[in-house]
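Table S2 (continued). Query chain:
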Amino acid sequence: MEQLMLLLLVLLQAKHWYVDFVDQSLEEIEKKAVYGHWRGIMHSFKHSIGTMLCVGCVLGPLYWPLSVMLGVLDGVIHYHVDWIKMNCAARSYEESGFWAHFGLDQMAHQLTYLFLAVIITL
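Corresponding output:
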């Protein structure tokens, strides 16, 4: 089980990198500050789908209901972490505190993935 959880965490990390740093549009970035805007929701939906696929691939087809539940949970948490960051943190790398806020945001996402892995092991 430990190897499966390690594989899951690696896949979630790769998913996070892709959705947040490769596939995210400027419109998604800008609109994450507007609560309920469809672009921010779309960004989090991509995280949900990615998490569903990661969990489903690691645990297999019998666990698709759990994969869907964890994907939705990840998307909801991701949405709110991003919204908080966009409304409470510096937005320009030249502003004081930007890197601390950016690092806190990333840590919150990584802790979410650890939380999801713990749920699976219960």
